[in-house]
Amino acid sequence: MAVLNRLDWYDIARDTNWTPTYVAESELFPEELSSAFGLPAEVFEEYDEPYKTTYPEYVKVQREKDAGAYSVKAALERSKMFENASPGWLSVLKLHFGAIARGEYSASSAEARMVRFGRAPGMRNMATFGMMDEIRHSQLQLFFPHQYVSKDRQFDWAFKAYDTNEWAMIAARHFFDDVMVTRGAVGVALTLTFAFESGFTNMQFLGLAADAAEAGDWTFSSLISSIQTDESRHAQIGAPLVQILVKNGKKAEAQKLVDISIWRAWKLFSILTGPVMDYYTPLEHRKQSFKEFMQEWIVVQFERSLLELGLDKPWFWDDFLHEIDEQHHGMHLGVWFWRPTVWWNPAAGVAPAEREWLEEKYPGWNATWGQCWDVITDNALDNKMEQTLPVTLPVVCNMCQLPINFTPGPAWKTRDFSLTYEARDYHFCSEGCRWCFEQEPTRYQDHLSLVDRFLAGQIQPPDLGGALKYMNLAPGEMGEDALKFAWLDEVRAERLKKAS
Ligand code: MN
Ligand code: MN
Fold it and tell me: How many Å lie between the centroid of ligand 2 and the Cα of residue 69?
């Protein structure tokens, strides 16, 4: 039998659809799972995926990618990266694997929903590859850290984190559940592929790959670059849908889902990626500041693609541009201060040279965040370590689940964005988080933040010790200062120099 050329069959195959005769269309594609805004099947026939690949091509390329990532790992196994890496860099790895690896499985189920309930055949094809991509990502990101588990228990959190009530994990899960697990096929294409993957995963995977290469961690660099090549392919599932929705009178609906996901992704990245890039990565290996990465990868990317596809910039764009200058500094300070409550060792990143860099990248840093770090540094120099540690929990936001914090100093404008809904009081960190809640209160209303759980008596004994137990943080897993305060030596030297 003659084999047809790809061009001779591809367009027919990728368009194959059928009209159900034994069941109604609405039974084959229930609105709850397809979430197609009630639009009829015909409008989705225009769906034209920008990236076309066949199954044999996909398998061949993926096999090569996997072989590449695993062979770099094998070749560098004896390179003593673990022994030679800066403690701050190891923290980058621990935070990344714990927050991301199991989230990839969630992404796989989200892709699977598009495989079955996507309304266009091309969308279902792309999502099939996307689903397999995400399984590969979970496997890679569990296998790679596994070799370190016997050396350092915190690496066990690559697998463990997702099943715990550790506070940063509650935040990550709340977001991932919202945009991956609990949306129908069209919804997930907007919240996950269009809003999250086309901007934010680029940032995490390409941005961190650049820092990893600078830090000499070629294993991690090749691993996450390999993953990103998949992401940039399946991230394209959403854009053709946006065009169809805009054309068929569903612009407002599409805009809303995209806006929710961008805002929520931003909040998570302010704690996941911001501290890593601006504080943990050793100064000499930093490629760009977090803000510069955000501007290049997120701001420019979204401004262009949103407008091109007929959507508007999100209503919160000015707040967002303002926050990328500030928010992650507060998140970093909080994570470092509450370090026993995380599964990695935060690097303070505030030795004299690092502070100089921060001031250069974020003018005004010394007069604001620097003041808080002065107090911490003085206490540490006086050996009052207990004053560098928390005794209570911070107030966290009922949407992003992250500590509510603002820039300290003269311009201090801290405030709580509150809302009473069905007799319960909610507290939000921002207009954006409160707005997300208001779009669909029933979706979020029953969730208890860590602090709500504390107040409800679910955490016993009701103190930091009880909270650590509740978060499953065993001794040897709780975070401590990454450098065990060795950075104080540089501070002392600097102060001596100034005094003399
Ligand atoms: Mn992935
Ligand atoms: Mn993905």
Answer: 18
d(CA 31, CA 43) in angstroms, rounded, equals: 15
**Ligand 2: centre distance to CA 471 (Å):** 28
DSSP H helix total and E strand total for the chain: 27, 2
Q: What are phi and psi for residue 420, nearest 5 degrees?
A: -105, 125
Rounded CA separation 186/87 (Å): 42
Over residues 406-432, mean pLDDT: 91
Q: How far is C-alpha 169 from the geometric centre of its chain's CA atoms?
A: 11
pLDDT at 140: 96
For position 227, what pLDDT does the model report? Answer: 95
β-bridge mates for residue 418, sequence order: 427
Span 136-181, pLDDT tens digits: 999 999 999 999 999 999 999 999 999 999 999 999 999 999 999 9
Distance 117 CA to ligand 2 centre (A): 18
Q: From CA 404, how far away is CA 466, in angstroms rounded? A: 22
Half-sphere exposure of 416 (CA within 13 A, CB side): 12
Distance 133 CA to ligand 1 centre (A): 7
Q: Please, which pLDDT band fits residue 1 given cuts at 50, 70 and 90?
A: low
Distance of CA 2 to the CA centre of its chain: 48
Q: Which fold has domain 30-499?
A: Ribonucleotide Reductase, subunit A (1.10.620)
DSSP state of 288: S
**What is the tens place of the pLDDT at every residue in 318-374?**
999 999 999 999 999 999 999 999 999 999 999 999 999 999 999 999 999 999 999
Query: Please, what's the largest Cα pairwise distance for the chain?
Result: 89
Ligand 2 center–CA 459 separation, angstroms:
35
Q: Which residue's entry shows tokens 């500041």?
A: 289
| Centroid of ligand 1 to alpha carbon of 380 (angstroms) | 41
Residue 434 Cα to ligand 2 middle (Å): 27
How many CB atoms within 10 Å of residue 86? Answer: 18
Cα–ligand 2 centroid distance for 259 (angstroms): 18
Going from the Cα of 205 to the center of ligand 1, the distance in angstroms, rounded, reads 10
Residue extents of the structural domains in the chain:
30-499
CA of 220 to the centre of ligand 1 (A): 15
What residues have a C-beta under 5 A from ligand 2, the ion?
107, 197, 231
C-alpha 196 – ligand 2 centre gap (Å): 9
Ligand minimally distant from the alpha carbon of residue 103: 1
Tokens of 425: 């009081």
461 cis-preceded (ω within 30 degrees of 0): yes
pTM, whole model, 2 decimals? 0.95
State the distance from the centre of ligand 2 to the C-alpha of 453, rounded, in angstroms. 32
Going from the Cα of 329 to the center of ligand 2, the distance in angstroms, rounded, reads 28
Q: Rounded to whole angstroms, how far apart are CA atoms 47 and 263? A: 27
